[in-house]
Amino acid sequence: xxxxxxxxxxxxxxxxxxxxxxxxxxxxxxxxxxxxxxxxxxxxxxxxxxxxxxxxxxxxxxxxxxxxxxxxxxxxxxxxxxxxxxxxxxxxxxxxxxxxxxxxxxxxxxxxxxxxxxxxxxxxxxxxxxxxxxxxxxxxxxxxxxxxxxxxxxxxxxxxxxxxxxxxxxxxxxxxxxxxxxxxxxxxxxxxxxxxxxxxxxxxxxxxxxxxxxxxxxxxxxxxxxxxxxxxxxxxxxxxxxxxxxxxxxxxxxxxxxxxxxxxxxxxxxxxxxxxxxxxxxxxxxxxxxxxxxxxxxxxxxxxxxxxxxxxxxxxxxxxxxxxxxxxxxxxxxxxxxxxxxxxxxxxxxxxxxxxxxxxxxxxxxxxxxxxxxxxxxxxxxxxxxxxxxxxxxxxxxxxxxxxxxxxxxxxxxxxxxxxxxxxxxxxxxxxxxxxxxxxxxxxxxxxxxxxxxxxxxxxxxxxxxxxxxxxxxxxxxxxxxxxxxxxxxxxxxxxxxxxxxxxxxxxxxxxxxxxxxxxxxxxxxxxxxxxxxxxxxxxxxxxxxxxxxxxxxxxxxxxxxxxxxxxxxxxxxxxxxxxxxxxxxxxxxxxxxxxxxxxxxxxxxxxxxxxxxxxxxxxxxxxxxxxxxxxxxxxxxxxxxxxxxxxxxxxxxxxxxxxxxxxxxxxxxxxxxxxxxxxxxxxxxxxxxxxxxxxxxxxxxxxx
Amino acid sequence: xxxxxxxxxxxxxxxxxxxxxxxxxxxxxxxxxxxxxxxxxxxxxxxxxxxxxxxxxxxxxxxxxxxxxxxxxxxxxxxxxxxxxxxxxxxxxxxxxxxxxxxxxxxxxxxxxxxxxxxxxxxxxxx
Lengths: 705, 127
Known about the structure:
The structure holds 2 protein chains of 2 kinds. Helix content of chain A is 53%, strand content 15%. By secondary structure, chain A is an alpha+beta fold. A 7-stranded mixed β-sheet of chain A has the order 10-22-21-20-11-18-19, with helices on both faces. By secondary structure, chain B is an alpha/beta fold. Chain B has a single domain, classed as Immunoglobulin-like (Sandwich). The relative contact order of chain B is 0.19. Classes of the chains: A alpha+beta, B alpha/beta. The interface between A and B is large, with 73 and 57 residues.
């Protein structure tokens, strides 16, 4: 039994409560990046040693092929024998220095009764060395002299090449996880907080919830919080991908790791340590990168059997070549067995999907898109229909006054002032828009002498002795006010998807105020981008048909599901799915959580809260709809990359193994050299990673084109 | 067929059988995770070319804490993944990294390196 207490003395123990923190490196004693650098340097030293021994070994293994050397070391001479003994010793040194990880790795695996790449390389190079050494020391064991050639070059060059491949792999692998390391690097180390009225600089780990934090112009925001003093614009591009700085005033939320531009700010810390948005993002991206794409399960089954199967193939290859092959049968059989072991590359197979996934999810994160897992990524690739919630997704989500149309004899400010007076005490959602608009224009509404709300119709009030009516047209007409003069104008506003509110004062029509939830600035372009991706775009809303149609028209959407109650949104998504469609639902996650869950892929938009991240498959931290097209584009590109890699790995092994076994020999007389096999093997795993890295060149424009 | 060919053929097929038996038909009783005072089932897993132990038996319904300690620098094992419980962690060399999860139902789950080359199993038994 091992408990945490027993572990002291065998290495630093990380307490489980801070395990989450530990995982993204804040408390790490050694980061994976540093581990990798050390690993790379070590492997490169091994490669240079192997290469330095390998070059002369290759030349001197076949002295009879080289004019001058041929005369110094004639075949069968004593000096050649001694040369080969020296080569045997040198190649042993290469095995011990450059190739020891293959043997120790193979041994460790063997203890677990499993086999891996190390097993194949160790057995392959070891066999070549042992054969050569036996042939050199005990030639009498072999029936003919031409069987006693040595293959030390195979041992040395294969070891060197595979080590080089591993070094390149470590380097390229580092690049695939750059995205997350960049995120971790965003975290500022210190924070300036006000304690006892004094501004002190403290390590960011020591900031607690409730601290007042000071951010100077050009400074980094250390943790999440709410602005209490000052105004400024904040560059949030590193978290949200949004390139324009965002204005912040007291009461606004502020995200850690973003950069203050010109103003000075004070804010109260609300989330610190492992709870900050950045920490959540880093944790989530890390988990998603390590998750599995469903297709990986097939690969897992294959790779579980792969390595032992290769060993078996190589033994069978040996037997067949020994029984039926040309003379010297033993030498040929050995070469075939060794080549087979070396050319098989379980690595390419194993790395094919994880490498692409890591790169793709990291890429998405750098655009403010959090993809929850490999499942979400694979599902996003198949989407053919995108359902957009209207409020808060296509539109800003906050009704505002868009037009004020005064009747004859009234000023528009006067109309707004009157309406604001009536609506000030109302709880209607549209009332807030009117009151806010009046405040923005710095209008002071007059005092009311009486107030009465008629639910569903409007407000009846008095200013002094004069009557004020605010509400729907029939409400005013019922009170005897003629609304006719502005009826046409009101109808036009309604056609534009706006809600007209009539105002009458002193028994005369004063004007019409139009209120609408405006479409976000970039929604139209984003919806066009979705169309260009070949997706069917559907708008879903609780609005009446006329308003909904008007907004859809302006947003460029053909299909509208209007008058859908919030609780029925999930049902509408289900209906689309029953039509055989793969549906993405995009919403703000507030009242459409069931629909997000019902959809094949749920996108939560405009939020970085843990709750929304948990509830959705893909989270778009910015409020921009562009993220949907980008996310689908990245998913498609990533899955294409996965398939390319898997195809490459299967084809490589599928072609390489038969060739190594010598199927081409009876047909074309071609037999693969183990050295070429080593080259191919190293090249194949480096290719897989390089292809994954290619994903990083994905550009947003590709989504649009 | 000459005598040596017969010998090589018989030896070859025997070796194939040994390889298949050795790698594919391994017994696995595994190691039973120990209970700690805080109610966890805890097991230290050494990471070096494989996981030791590679089969861990736990009881359903009690939280599990696996303490991974990687003692090699080979990049292969730098991350451990438990897909069924949606857990994963980076394993810096020499640091003990805990991973916690809750096995609800009896069953068998894998933990692997990111490439799926190193494998271990978690056997969840009825409590």
